[in-house]
Amino acid sequence: MFVIKTTKTLKLIIQTAVLSLLIVTGYSQESDTMAQIAESPNQNSAEKLTVNFNKSDFFRAYDIPETARGIRSKLLDVGEIRSAPSCKSEKLDVLIPKGEIVMVYKYFNAERCWSVHYKDAWGFIPDNIVFPVFDDSKIKQATKYDEPPQLKTQIRPKYPSEAKKKGIKGKVYVKVFINEKGVASDAIILQGIPGLNQAAIDAVKKAKYKPAKLKGKPVGVWVNLSLNFN
After folding, report:
1. 96 and 153: one domain?
2. Which of 127, 122, 88 is nearest to 108 (CA)?
3. How far apart are CA 21 and CA 26, in angstroms?
4. pLDDT for 4 beyond 60
5. How far apart (Å, rounded) are the C-alpha atoms in residues 230 and 224?
6. Which of these, 52, 81, 99, 132, could form a disulfide with 94 (CB 3.0-4.6 Å)?
7. Does 120 share its domain with 148?
8. Domain of 157, in residue numbers
């Protein structure tokens, strides 16, 4: 009887050991699979995805309003586009020559860089090489008038909370095109402040205007405006 009990006990021990081995092996394989997924460059990696981003995906990934208009800017030095909003992030295989015109969108104050669009690439560049400019060809459009445009509502810029918290303040100068319907259809930063430019553009475009007139008929004209953030 002792031998039979021992044999049954030994058999139970062996079965338990085999089952444990299977569980451990299965867990190890599952862990390896999860690790491979986590390390995959296509799984929720903004740095890797930036290379293939289109405008909508890029705006969504970095919380840029779909209505945001780029600020036409000139590079003061050679620009290397980065894959994420950090000057230490991976460099994309895109080099922007000094003096080239690019479109910048959202400003990342803590990282001191702009989101940028250049040719087919979306990425980020340091703010110290970006200088906003305006398009002379646009400024020449319909600038003559007998009666200037007038404000129908106040311009109320919304002070960005992040900029206010970090003490960013000053005056932003904007050139605005008010069309024949009294709508601010275009706006260009003449002299900006990183972190406040988009708020200035949004404010002048939300305001309502009475259009300018030439010989009694409404016309579109460019006007200069300044907005204080204090």
Report:
1. no
2. 127
3. 8
4. no
5. 20
6. 81
7. no
8. 136-229
